[in-house]
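Quick one: structure tokens for this chain, please?
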Amino acid sequence: MVTAWKGLKVTMGHVFQASKKRLPGGVADDNYFKQQEGLVTIQYPREKIPVPETGRYQLHVEIDDCIVCDLCAKICPVDCIEIDAIKAVEDIGITSDGTKKRLHAARFDIDMAKCMYCGLCTTVCPTECIIMTDTYDKSVTEVPALTYKFSEMTPEEVAEKKRMLEESRKPKPDTTS
């Protein structure tokens, strides 16, 4: 009987605290550890916990700034980044930091189902075109939808660029005779 009363006392304490609501806050808030009373349930998706600046969430690639150096794919410990490059035969422009682009990104896919959110790919990128965003909820119903495709080239454009590269590699006929 004594244990039932103790359990009822704890339950009633929680019932009365339910009238006080704690505001969701991040660890950086001054009163984060001082708030000891009130409910802490977050009514997701209407309410969200503040995202820390140093959080590592979804990857995003600014493909216009990518020089297709393949460093991100090489350093990835779980091989979730797949890149196919085609050497350019014409001038394809420069990135926002002034680096000249010499390769076309025929394919730039990131499989977020494999990603372990380590952030290594973002640290080795020389043009800083791959970043981790503050978006943490990318719910999907099928796993293949977690493969993000950042290349903007169509299969026809890829075939054309490969054909142009092959033509440029063919030896020119000697016309000096």
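The chain has a mean pLDDT of 83.
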